[in-house]
Amino acid sequence: MAHGDITHIDIPVGDTQAARTFYSGLFGWDIAEVPGFEGYPMWRAPNQISGGGLAPRDASFTTPRSYVEVDSIDDTLAQVSSLGGKVLMGKSQISPTSWWAIFEDLDGNQLGLYEGVTSAE
Known about the structure:
The chain has 121 residues and is of the alpha+beta class. It has one domain (6-116): 2,3-Dihydroxybiphenyl 1,2-Dioxygenase, domain 1, CATH 3.10.180. 18% of the residues lie in helices and 40% in strands. It contains two helices and eight strands; from the N terminus they run E-H-E-E-E-E-H-E-E-E. An eight-stranded mixed sheet has the order 2-3-4-1-5-8-7-6, covered by helices on one side. Strand 7 (98-104) and strand 8 form a beta hairpin. The longest helix has 12 residues, at 16-27. The radius of gyration is 15 Å and the shape is globular. The relative contact order is 0.19. This is VOC family protein. Pfam families: Glyoxalase. It comes from Oerskovia douganii. InterPro entries: Anthracycline_SecMetBiosynth, Glyas_Bleomycin-R_OHBP_Dase, Glyas_Fos-R_dOase_dom, VOC_core. Residues 5-116 form the VOC domain.
């Protein structure tokens, strides 16, 4: 994917098994846990391009969050701040080759950033 592409969508859920049954039945999503990401089942749409995760719901995560791929999280977070947005979570490692961050736009919408490559093998 390229800089600016939406690469992942997290959906907050309270009951992971019920959510798996609901979304696989409703949309035909393939939902599975990936080794190393236990407790965070990931979904893939039938087009084999769209995907995301069923993330545990908590007080700070109550609505779906899209993640945008960027060339540099550090540069993008600097732009977020200079354009009036707010960094909610700085760059954090997912794997040795991938990172994420969260920011809030001018209207209070939360979006995630993704940089790198995550191997599911």
